[in-house]
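re: the backbone from monday

yeah here it is again, tokenized this time
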């Protein structure tokens, strides 16, 4: 975990320091910035043929910091010259008016309501004017505590499974992610548009897949000297544990920072971060289903949006905002859209009416940051747009009436999350937060929540008129999956929980402040103490709630789909044996993607034909052809030519299939009598066949002799034997 944290924090913090950010801002914005560095570097290195490595990451960080530093100096110099010239031409009265405008535009300016101890206007903090605020420590500590709780709870459950942290997740997404980590680690190919070299070993056909998260994981694999499976497990848990509390806290800040006092802002962000584990989807369900890049990226979306908005008041944040968007999009493109939607709703329903530095200047900065992020990822965006039809084809509709789908969306009862029922208390606190926002005329979060709600409902049951098609187009960003949309909804609701608790407890502290006699407490020390006390009490209360409620979610995240559904001890033994055989790495090992045997690449680096859980289809004609003709090897010359052209040396069979709708492939289940293949290994459901033409007779005889499970000892493979084991 420390290795991952260093890789995600240090590079971004260095770039933040180059942008002249204070340490707390450099650290707070570091994770998406680090991902941004990796996203750009991975693509550039892929173009010029430089392998991805720790050294390459260091060079990219240094180059980015240098560029950001030089650009920052140029902007600072130009701004200084412009202000000097304007200062000479302006009258004193004009200068005073400009200074007043600048003061009112700043976010977080300290102001006290005259004559009322402990009661503040938006942006203020109780204490003497000019006193340095330490309120940022509160959300910082809450984020770290929440991240530790999430990671520790899941790791505790995972460690109790067979194999511990190296346990193989028996699901499809993890199968691909672990293979991708191994691929980047072994070959140094981290460019997302070169993912076809992994996905389609037959011909390396063009394929885009976001690789930034996998690139960082590959560095962890090399630094720690662990396998791809263990790397996947640890980096998945560590990354989601870090980003979700951070992203939720940042969104709570974005909601409150302009209309609430600094103690309310800090308490809201801290409570939101601490309350994150109370939501099954943040991030336990995402760990359970292995939707890792999407979860990590959307977990950072709130932070990305907050940094973009904060850059309006502090131009030093512009590089962090742009790089952060690139990093979020590099981890998963859907989250860049999520962050953009957050900013869009904030600007349309708040920033446009109460600009920070003027409508035009605000728009130019926002558009510039967005344009920088999009243009940086443009080559990748163009590549992924070619797969838009495949993405939009996903269906997750449910058999429920319209009222039921609305109820499910409002209560966050989407796929998998509904297994734990409705969390009524949590939703009630979120409703309190919405009331607080409405009272302070902060409308954009409610409108944002409503928009996401409509898209989520449409993904469960499409609206019958033209709006259904439009909403499906919007929802395709999230594969029209209610669970993925529900993650973004839950982030908004979690931020609302923070606002509800933060505003309520600080209102209580403010009421207590009115009871303090200004004569006995002239500097407001008692009020400050009350504010800190109620904030800490709120955090302790929410933390206690987390410790009691969240472990059941962690059980699902750490244990579900960990029990030999696809790969068991028989497969692992077969992988190890096969890795020691002649030509195991000089050709390809034909596997059935429906059986999940492609895990052999992640565990032992064996070059399987299937490293993804989906059938390759027409993209790989030879691989697809052999899928229904393998039992004709040695009889059909066309099959023999396909085996030779593809370079297949072994065939690995290990039923049953993963999904119930996947029909058993009889062409792979009846290979014992195939003349062109020689069975060299047979244990339980596992069969390994050597391609006769790829070996000499002596090599084949030696393999059979050395086999710990000679084929003559086993009964013929049948569908029943594959399912229930040998007789």
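seq for it, each position gets an aa:
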């Amino acid at each position: 975990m420390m290795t991952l944290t260093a890789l995600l924090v240090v590079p971004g913090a260095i770039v933040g320091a180059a942008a002249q950010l204070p340490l707390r801002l450099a650290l707070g914005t570091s994770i998406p910035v680090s991902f941004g560095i990796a996203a750009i570097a991975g693509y550039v290195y892929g173009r010029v043929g430089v392998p991805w490595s720790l050294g390459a990451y260091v060079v990219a960080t240094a180059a980015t910091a240098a560029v950001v530093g030089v650009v920052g100096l140029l902007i600072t110099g130009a701004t200084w010259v412009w202000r000097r010239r304007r200062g000479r031409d302006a009258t004193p009265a004009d200068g005073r008016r400009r200074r007043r405008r600048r003061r009112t535009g700043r976010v977080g300016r300290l102001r006290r309501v005259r004559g009322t101890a402990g009661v503040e206007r938006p942006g203020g903090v109780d204490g003497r004017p000019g006193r340095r605020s330490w309120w940022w420590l509160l959300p910082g500590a809450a984020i770290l505590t929440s991240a530790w709780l999430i990671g520790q709870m899941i790791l505790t459950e995972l460690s109790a499974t067979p194999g511990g942290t190296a346990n193989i997740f028996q699901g499809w997404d993890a199968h691909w992610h672990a293979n991708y980590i191994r691929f980047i680690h072994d070959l140094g190919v981290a460019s997302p548009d070169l993912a076809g070299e992994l996905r389609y070993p037959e011909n390396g056909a063009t394929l885009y897949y976001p690789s930034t998260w996998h690139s960082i994981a590959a560095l962890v694999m090399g630094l720690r000297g662990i396998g791809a499976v263990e790397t996947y497990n640890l980096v998945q848990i560590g990354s989601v544990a870090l980003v979700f509390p951070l992203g939720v806290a940042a969104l709570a800040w974005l909601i409150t920072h302009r209309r609430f006092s600094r103690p309310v802002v800090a308490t809201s962000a801290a409570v939101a971060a601490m309350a994150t584990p109370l939501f099954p989807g943040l991030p336990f369900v995402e760990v359970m289903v292995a939707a890792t890049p999407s979860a990590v990226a959307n977990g950072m979306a709130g932070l990305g949006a907050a940094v973009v908005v904060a850059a309006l008041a502090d131009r030093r944040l512009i590089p962090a905002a742009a790089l952060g968007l690139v990093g979020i999009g590099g981890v998963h493109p859907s989250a860049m859209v999520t962050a953009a939607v957050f900013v869009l709703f904030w600007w349309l329903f708040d920033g446009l009416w109460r600009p920070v530095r003027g409508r035009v200047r605000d728009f130019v900065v926002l558009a510039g940051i967005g344009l920088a992020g999009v243009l940086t990822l443009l080559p990748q965006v163009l590549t992924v747009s070619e797969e838009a039809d495949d993405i939009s084809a996903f269906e997750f509709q449910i058999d429920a009436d319209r009222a039921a789908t609305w109820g499910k969306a409002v209560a966050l009862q989407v796929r998998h999350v509904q297994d734990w029922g409705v969390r009524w208390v949590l939703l009630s606190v979120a409703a309190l937060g919405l009331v607080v926002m409405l009272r302070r005329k902060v409308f954009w979060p409610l409108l944002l929540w409503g928009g996401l709600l409509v898209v989520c409902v449409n993904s469960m049951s499409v609206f019958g008129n033209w709006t259904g098609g439009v909403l499906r187009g919007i929802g395709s960003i999230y594969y029209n999956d209610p669970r993925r949309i529900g993650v973004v909804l839950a982030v908004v609701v979690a931020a609302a929980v923070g606002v509800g608790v933060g505003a309520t407890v600080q209102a209580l502290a403010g009421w207590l402040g009115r009871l303090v006699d200004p004569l006995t407490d002239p500097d407001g020390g008692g009020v400050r103490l009350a504010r800190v006390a109620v904030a800490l009490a709120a955090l302790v209360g929410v933390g206690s709630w987390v410790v009691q409620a969240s472990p059941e979610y962690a059980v699902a995240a750490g244990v579900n789909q960990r029990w030999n559904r696809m790969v068991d001890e028989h497969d692992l033994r077969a992988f190890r044996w096969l890795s020691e055989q002649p030509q195991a790495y000089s050709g390809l090992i034909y596997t059935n993607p429906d059986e999940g045997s492609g895990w052999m690449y992640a565990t032992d680096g064996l070059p399987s034909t299937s490293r993804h859980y989906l059938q390759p289809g027409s993209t790989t004609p030879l691989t697809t052809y052999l899928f229904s003709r393998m039992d004709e090897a040695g009889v059909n010359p066309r099959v023999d030519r396909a085996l030779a052209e593809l370079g297949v040396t072994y065939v690995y069979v290990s039923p049953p299939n993963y999904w119930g709708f996947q029909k058993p492939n009889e062409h792979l289940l009846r290979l014992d009598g195939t003349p062109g293949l020689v069975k060299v290994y047979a244990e339980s459901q596992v069969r390994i066949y050597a391609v006769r033409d790829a070996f000499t007779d002596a090599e084949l005889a030696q393999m059979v002799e050395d086999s710990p499970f000679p084929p003559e000892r086993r009964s013929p493979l049948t569908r029943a034997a594959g399912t229930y084991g040998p007789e």
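Residues 100-130, 718-727 have pLDDT under 50 and may be disordered. The longest strand covers residues 677-683.
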